[in-house]
Amino acid sequence: MKIHPSLISADLLNLKNVIKTLEPHCDGFHIDVMDNHFVPNLTWGPMFIKAIAQATDKPLFVHLMIDNPETFLEKIHIKRASTVSFHIENTKNISQMIKRIKENKWHANIAIKPNTPLEKILPFLNDISSVLLMSVEPGFSGQQFLAGSLDRLKELAAYRKEKELNVAIVMDGGINKTNIGHLAQHGCDEVGVAAAIFTTEDPVASLEELYQATKN
Are 82 and 59 in contact, with CB atoms under 8 Å apart? Predict the structure, then answer.
């Protein structure tokens, strides 16, 4: 399983050092972009994302929790092989959004809220690299993993197997060393993790514990 530390919970005044410390131990970094409209919180703008991209050689997973995500693509500067994730709930033209992401040589990901039916994303699974199953309501770090998220993972993983699809399943929200092993066991390929890394005394040790938990 790939683990992307979610920088929303990192020490923002020491972010470059945080990235350099964690970079040898992780697969990339998760960037939550919030606009205080689609979700009730405000985070990074394009210049901040560019600065983060320049601070690491690892790919970024840019999760757009914003209104009109289509207008944001031309503003961000991230490396090829990074992932751009947009929400199915507020994107007007899904196919066009996927096309534009691919034209920039990024991986396309569709994110889905906990209460949105999985059926909404099924028609697009052949066209994207991964799906992001939110296991909390998007907007804030530190929330508890929602009951029912594991069942949604199992359902999507079973559908992927049945249809022989080559799409990765990503999860984000309330993931820690207690539940990450179950997610790996039932088909999750990547996770974004915030509080379980950054609210501990030793983020590197906590990250390594998470990787170890995926193998148990």
Answer: yes
Say whether 200 sits in a helix, a strand or coil. Answer: coil
Q: What is the CATH number of the domain that holds 57?
A: 3.20.20.70
Is the confidence at residue 194, as pLDDT, over 90? yes
- Please state the domain count of the chain: 1
User: Which of 21, 96, 17, 111 is CA-nearest to residue 64?
Assistant: 111
Q: Is 32 a catalytic residue?
A: yes
Whether 172 is catalytic is yes
Q: Where are the beta strands (DSSP E) in the chain?
A: 2-5, 29-34, 60-65, 83-87, 107-112, 130-134, 168-172, 190-193
Catalytic residue among 11, 27, 32, 35: 32
Q: Reply yes or no on whether the pLDDT at 139 is more than 80.
A: no
Q: What is the pLDDT of residues 158-173, one digit of tens each?
A: 999 999 999 999 999 9
pLDDT attached to residue 140: 74
For 30, the domain range is: 2-213
